[in-house]
Amino acid sequence: MNFLLLIVLIVLNTNCFSAEKIGVGPMVGNPTGVNAKLWNNSETAIDMAIAFNLDDSSGLSLHSDYLFHWFDSLYFKETHPLDIYSGFGGRLKFGDSINFGARVPVGVVYRQKDTSDFFVETAPVLDFIGRSGVDLHLVIGARYYFQ
Known about the structure:
By secondary structure, the chain is mainly beta. It has a single domain (2-146), classed as Porin (Beta Barrel), CATH 2.40.160. The chain is 8% helix and 67% strand. It contains 1 helix and 9 strands. Strands 1, 2, 3, 4, 5, 6, 7, 8 and 9 form a 9-stranded antiparallel beta sheet that branches. Residues 1-10 and 12-18 have low confidence and may be disordered.
């Protein structure tokens, strides 16, 4: 756990991302936990989460993804724009065994001005270190943005 804290502190103190905005909030589904999003520029971001899996192999799950966004791609009731995003990343899962795999998230976001957003995301996961296999993440969540 100390190693994870060290990585998070290094990432947050590094200027290589030059984050414009940082959002933090809950996510519910599989996995359930806390997520954060650091915007690199107006179209790309890095997200990360610390969560617990609720399936039969429950355990701590950490993931991070590099995301590409397409703004105002969909409309809800013709007045509420929705953004689509997709990307790639990795997942580390601690349970019966330690697993590492690749993720490909796809999601829809509803932005509420520049202060918060609500999202739905699915991500197939292919574990190739530890117990190999395929998993599926499906979550809903929200974030509050600090500027």
